[in-house]
Amino acid sequence: MSLPTGAVRRLSLLSAMLLAAVLLAACGSSSDDGGGSSSASTAAASTTADSGSGGDSDSAEPVTITVGVPRNFGYLSTLWARDVQPPGVKVEYKYFPVFTDMLTALNGGKIDLTEIGDVGAVQSYVNGGKVKAVAVTQPNDLNCGLIVPRDSTVRTFADLKGKKLAFLRSTNSYISFLHQIKQAGLKESDFQIVEISGPAANKAFQTGQVDAYYTIDPNLADIVQQTGGREIATCRDMRTENLYPYVATTDAIESKPQAIRAVIQAVADNIAWIQAHPDEQARLVAPKVGFSEEAIRATYGEGARGLQTVDDAFYAHEQPVIDELVEARIVSQPVRADEVFLSEFNDATTPSADAAR
Fold it and tell me: Which structural domain, as residue segments, surrounds residue 171?
């Protein structure tokens, strides 16, 4: 005997509901069986949800953070070359071949975070207070120094008395120079300072227009390899630590702290990865930034081995450095180290267990 049409429709609807319930129950239990894709999805969803706390967006969409990548030094170029994307975060990398363009973008709020020198971090904070350091590397004091041409008779800094030296007074190269003249018992007027940097300084050095040049890696390593120039003093010799702070705008620090924390963790992991994969890193980064693979390997072989903890010991060590910048008129006004360097992201500065893989 056939059922009435209405009964058939009700029975079909009930069957559909029962089938849906079974499927939902099955999906809910899949994360408990160790299945890779389900576990990864759960972890990613958890990270994205966490990024909603402390100011980041509560939506399921990844939080976007714009990272400025400098050409001339540091570790962000490797993140960019590898296109590292932390869970729950969408990193938009913007490459800046010209460093001053990147500083302009940072101070204008066009990028959220970047990597600059320790002098630049203090200067950017003083010039408006809208930028603070959220992490900082260990010293890179073998990644900068003073070079002379291959056929130069100069052997020591004192031999450069009366000669032309290329550097900018607004950088820590000036601090290195001041340390050297003090140690040599000389004075600033004993030298001819030519204030140029970048391609102009490279050309002046290569064509013999200057007698010595303060520069940093990988440019330093690249020029030495190209010209046979000689490094007569490292920043370590000149008692200049050459830290690389990671600085972020105060707006980004307030609105997306978890995204910033994720990028800092990626930097910490990235430094560990570089040490484990020097050849692969050189192959990836060299064509991106326009330096030779040999220069990249030399640079990171002597660079920092990690980020450092920003704590009372760091502040006590860094304050005299900042005071010296003020005394040298590189920084326009006194400032406390704990105003420039934040400690709230210290939990992200240790590499993850599998960072080097």
Answer: 144-234
Cα separation, 227 vs 214, in Å, equals: 15
**Total domains, the chain:** 2
* Beta strands across the sheet bearing 89-96: 89-96, 63-70, 113-115, 245-249, 131-136
Within a 10 A sphere around the Cβ of 5, how many other Cβ atoms? 8
Strands 212-216 and 144-148: antiparallel
The CA distances from residue 10 to 16, 21, 24, in Å, are 10, 17, 21
pLDDT at 43: 33
Phi, psi for 254 (deg, rounded to 5): -80, -35
Secondary structure of residue 105 in the 3-state scheme = helix
Is 28 domain-assigned? Answer: no
Q: What is the pLDDT of residue 3?
A: 41
Q: Measured in Å, how far apart are the chain's first and last C-alpha atoms?
A: 69
Same-domain status, 103 and 184: no
| Beta bridge pairs of residue 247 | 114, 133
CATH code, 279: 3.40.190.10
H helices of the chain, where? 5-29, 36-50, 76-82, 99-107, 118-126, 172-184, 198-206, 219-227, 250-255, 257-276, 278-289, 293-301, 312-327, 337-340
User: DSSP secondary-structure letter at 53?
Assistant: G
Q: Is the residue at 334 inside a domain?
A: yes
Do 163 and 288 lie in one domain? The reply is no
Q: Are residues 247 and 342 in the same domain?
A: yes
Look at the block and give the residue holding tokens 């760091």.
314
Mean pLDDT per 10-residue interval, the chain, length 357 residues: 41 37 35 33 37 52 96 96 97 95 91 96 91 98 98 97 97 97 98 96 97 97 96 98 97 97 98 97 97 97 97 98 97 97 98 91
What's the whole-model pTM score?
0.82
